[in-house]
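From the pipeline queue, job 12 of 40. The input is one protein chain; the requested action is below.

Action: predict structure.
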Amino acid sequence: MSLHEERGGVGGETEIESALASVARPCARARFKDDLRRRFLVPETAFADPRDAERRRRTLLRVGGLLAAAVILMIGYVVIEPPAPRWKVVDLGAGAVVKADGEVLENREPDALARRLQRAREIEVQNGDLVVQIDDLALFDLGPGTRATFAGFDRSRAGNPFEVRAAAGRLRGRTGPGFRGHTMLVATDVMDVTVVGTAFAIDYEEQGTCICCLHGEVQVAAKALGAGPMPVPPQRMCLVFRDARGPVWGGSPGKHADPLRALEERAALIWR
């Protein structure tokens, strides 16, 4: 290329630039601008998968439902669940010593004593008798040397059994008007007793344990009795030995029946 062509080329470019500079700059239409904004300046969230939002919504609903269910259960336990039956000390022998979980209870004021007994896992009575009433459910007489637990009486709905364990001594019981619809399971060292509305007595003897029924329905189950529980008729008793001897059936002996009749008379005065 000659020097003249190079100069002509440079001059041509200058003329083109001058011509373009003299032309007015075109203005973009508003509609065109809006279209550009929508295409290139849309927020990132607009491109999110709509299924993600649906999953978040379902997760929030699930968590909210669980929280609501927990609140309902808590309210139901506090409001709907029946309160623990109230205990009452009906009688306490003058020389009786009462222990709750091995601790001697020095406060003999009836209400304070009843509250402590209701919380106890095991109750022990020495040198006298203790008579306690559990609301309108049952009346119990704990004789000297008795150790018993009443854990099943804290809360129970109709149809659920109350549970008592007589570990030693002499325990007499009389069910009350509020006992209807319940059963009571009484466990001892050699037998299990099922009570359905009655007056009964558990007596630990030197060679065995005796169950007496004053009236109502009582069934006893023990290894010595074979398969299945057996009924104890009113005014009768069953003595189960701790050795290999078979059980003895017969009439209730006076030393067992008399204190039970006294408890029956007391119950008649309470629940007239």
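Job complete. Residues 3-80 form one domain.
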